[in-house]
Amino acid sequence: MQSTAPANMARPMAFHALMEKIRRIEGGFGNPQLRQHLSTGIDALDANLPGGGLAAGAIHELWSPVEGGGLWTVATQLVRQSANRGGAILWFDPRCDFYPPAARTIGIDLGRLILVRPQGRKQMLWGIGHALRCRGIAAVVGMVASPTLAEIRRLQLAAESGGGLGFLLATRREDVSAGGVASRWKVTGGRSNGEVRRISVEIEKCRGGSARPPIMLEVEHGQVRVAVSSRLADRPDSPNVADSSAA
Amino acid sequence: MLTQWRGSACFVEHASPEARGAGVRPGMTLAHAQAVLPSAVFEGHDPSADAASLDMLARWAVRFSPRVGIDMPNGLFLDITGCERLFRGEGNLLNRLVHAMQEAGLFVHAAVASTLGAAWAVSHAGGQAQTIVPADQAYAALSPLPPWALRLDAHLTTQLDALGIHRIETLMMLPRSTLPARFGEALLLRVDQALGLRSENFQSITPTAGVSADICFDGCVTNWEVVQVAVEQLMDRVIADLKKSAAAPVQLDLFFFGETGAPMKRSALLCRPSNNRRHLLNLLLSQCERLNLSGGIEAVRLMVAESKPMAVEQGDFFDGDMRGSQRDAAEVLDELAGRLGANAVIRPELIESHRPERAWRPSPVTQAVKKPRDAAGRSKKSRPDDEPRHTDSEDADARPLRLLPRPEPIDVFAIVPDQPPSWFRYRGREYRSHHGTGPERIDHEWWADDRGTRDYYRIDTEGGARFWVFYEAESGRWFLHGIFE
User: Fold this and answer.
1) Nearest CA in chain A to B393
2) Is the model's pLDDT at B369 over the cut of 70?
3) pTM listed for this prediction
4) Which of B40, B118, B232, B332 could form a disulfide with B113, with the two C-beta atoms 3.0–4.6 Å apart?
């Protein structure tokens, strides 16, 4: 493209062009110039994510080995942030147990929330893909038991064309996808003391980046914040955890 | 018996058939009527209440025809063109209409005719509860009726009466050209309207909801492609008709008429009005995937069951800077609702209620589904303050994100009075409590039929999970109701 460039410039230009090409093939993950990345609203998490946030137009996976560990709480935090740009939020609710009053208290705008109740895995997959393809829908949250690589790629393509974010939630290790997601998060409940809720969040993998040690989050009165540095988060039983975060 | 004061005297305005039998006539003074029938019950006539009930009746009658008009003070017009197919004949339609009204305790005269005027005349002056006037017998049916049946004003009626014209037949024998000069334009207009020489229309209570189009095939069609082309043509016609009134459909009904049996119906519901041909066709045709054409289709009818003005912006979940994609999102929601069912795509609406499971209700995104509640008002069983509402006072951490549709009983161990269980089993897994918060007492609501006061506790387990359990004092049992997922 730079045919008029001097001969000694040709080599770095070619190198640059090649790098650019590779980044494009990679989909621009982790590169804010090539792909929009949305802040999670928590600085410590953003710092752990290449590109400074969640890749837009992509599928992200969150899973938890325990029931009641805070998987949805983390998901709502991420969804709320990704819907900051406007657009609807679609939460797939196959078991009819999503509770909107609680979602509102943690900052989800119910005026933009749509619940979708599919029957069976096939409807769920179709619905998520269909919704992701739409530009007016900012975030889609669904639960698909152990999606295959091909299924994830199909969803990824849909998200790519719509520009929104897809979140897949899994409550068991077996239900986690075979791969192909932009990021995978493991959510585990930490030791909570009644008032402050502790949730450990670990970025297991992330395209354009690498795995990071867990970060302990604290939820109190609907606000999510980082409890302590990721080093200390490995010691959730420490009685000083709450104090050190306040300091 | 309904009465009304006129000047200083109270007159009978309307009388029940029983009262008429006893000799009470409208126009009598109340004193006279009471002398004739001492047991008569009378009430002041309230014309506005009458109008309101007539309006309600008109809305009810929409089930028989999309075009219903009100004929004050006590009549309804229904344009049943094409609708008789749905009821397998005009006779059946009329029968069902009359029976339904009679069952509701109404005294009804109904007539089907090819003109509004003829139907009015026969129903008002014919004396039969139901009459069908075939198209070629309108003249014969009108002949024996008195001239007032042509909807003439009182002045004209007395004028004709004075001339000895007591039957329409006699009136018709007068030279047509002399009528306007002798009786004014109005008479000739009414005559022509009754005979169909001049067209007449009425104002429908649902102005654009009557828009429809049909295609009748030559013989039976079993080929889906042919039917599809027909539907596409119908869509063009309907959209063009709606555009004239700047409206767009929110519900479309598509009927397939076979040679025998009831017509097959497919509906498309929209969450906001749309004129987009591709989208509307897409929605309708996707509903027809499992349509059985083996019996053959004779005719197709596309009807706008509900429409809204295009300009009205209903949606609110598309704020922000994504306005250009609003329509996209609305269309996707329509498609999801079309495929998964209208009740599978919902918007949450908060309601004020102590009972956590009743603090919100799902509301289908597609507008047409919401109609019954909007149009007919709230149901009688509704709770005292059954209005969508937002309250900001509650504690953000008090409610779980996952609320089980039905509380599940749990096995508890190590119970201390007024304390949450320190150990419990839920779905085969055992949990040891690390910290319990509560109780939060939630009483039953007196207007609902639930029983028992619940003491809710938030339990943090050793494994880092948080649950919402309650103790029901009445049964002495523990339940898990929510998960702070």
Assistant:
1) A105
2) no
3) 0.69
4) B118
